[in-house]
Design a protein that fits this description.
Shape of chain B: flat
Order of helices and strands of chain B: HEEEEEEEE
Helix content of chain B: 10-25%
Number of strands of chain A: 10
Strand order of the largest sheet of chain B: 1-2-8-7
Oligomer: heterodimer
CATH topology of one domain in chain A: Immunoglobulin-like
Strand order of the largest sheet of chain A: 1-2-8-6-5
Radius of gyration of chain B: 23 Å
CATH architecture of one domain in chain B: Sandwich
Radius of gyration of chain A: 20 Å
């Protein structure tokens, strides 16, 4: 699999809930989500976002991941070639009930955000005896 | 906007020249709206690059999220800059199931012809937050030289 040649993924603009008033752009970060027995792990690609620029909100089972990109490039530079756009990142996810919302942990390294969403301890099956009347 | 360059004036009366000029003006108008120039689509070789220059340097920026500095291999040969590397996204965990897989992994290699000659020995590269910035100092002979205008005697 590692012999595969990588392709460029075009950035998709994130849908905004309302008309934008600032000349800023928001993109949908590419994500990988995988599940193991203990947790669900989410990886989001947000190049240009520092650790302090990440904002994660959890509200009514909706997880919002925002990445604020720091300004890059000097203003007195002349652009010769532009193949990627820069902007902020925004994506929302719905969290299943099996996730322990108190124990979500996030780390950021090299422009990739890793969110570990641990699962709650499985509720023990309860057997209900049917009594004879 | 009011300046018309000599080269833009048609030698003969071209009936489409006005449309052409109008289209160009619309293009510049819409470019200004976005706040910055629009990236050219169609770059298919990873990583996508942004190249800019100032008086003394050429800057090459690439988005390489998830790549450690040791995964990247840069080389300059003449006026060709080559960026090579490999990205592996497989986590070191057995028994997992993917719900979503959007992040690509694999090898990549990209060569870029530099617009001017550079000092190969003074090139620096840093990767911060998934953005690789390569700073290439321009060679002395291609730097703009200021010419003083002397007062004639």
């Amino acid at each position: 699999m590692s012999d595969k040649e990588m392709q460029v993924q075009q950035k998709m603009e994130a849908p905004q809930s309302g008309e934008p008033t600032k000349p800023e752009r928001c993109f949908i970060p590419a994500v990988d989500i995988y599940e193991t027995e203990e947790a669900v792990t989410l990886l989001a690609e947000m190049p240009g976002v520092a650790k302090d620029g990440v904002e994660i909100n959890l509200e009514n089972d909706t997880l919002t991941v925002k990445g604020h990109k720091a300004a890059n490039g000097g203003s007195d530079e002349r652009s010769l070639l532009r193949e990627f756009e820069t902007g902020h990142y925004l994506r929302r996810f719905t969290i299943a009930e099996t996730i322990d919302q108190e124990k979500i942990a996030a780390t950021m390294s090299d422009g990739v955000l890793t969110l570990v969403l641990p699962k709650v301890e499985p509720a023990k099956p309860k057997k209900i005896e049917v009594q004879c009347g | 906007m009011a300046i018309i360059r000599f080269s833009e004036q048609p030698v003969f009366r071209n009936p489409w020249a006005d449309f052409d000029r109008m289209r160009r003006e619309f293009d510049t108008l819409f470019q200004g709206l976005g706040g910055s120039s629009v990236a050219r689509p169609g770059a298919t070789v990873f990583p996508p690059l942004n190249v800019s220059e100032d008086e003394h340097h050429i800057y090459v920026r690439a988005e390489v999220p998830g790549l450690k500095p040791e995964d990247l291999e840069l080389s300059v040969e003449g006026d060709t800059l080559t960026i090579k590397g490999e990205r592996r996204t497989t986590p070191g965990v057995e028994k997992l199931s993917y719900h979503r897989r959007e992040i690509e992994s694999g090898r990549f290699s990209r060569a870029l012809t530099l617009p001017t000659r550079v000092k190969a020995e003074k090139i620096t590269a840093v990767a911060v937050n998934g953005i690789l910035t390569i700073t290439l100092p321009k060679a002395e002979e291609v730097k703009p030289r200021r010419i003083e205008v002397k007062v004639g005697a």
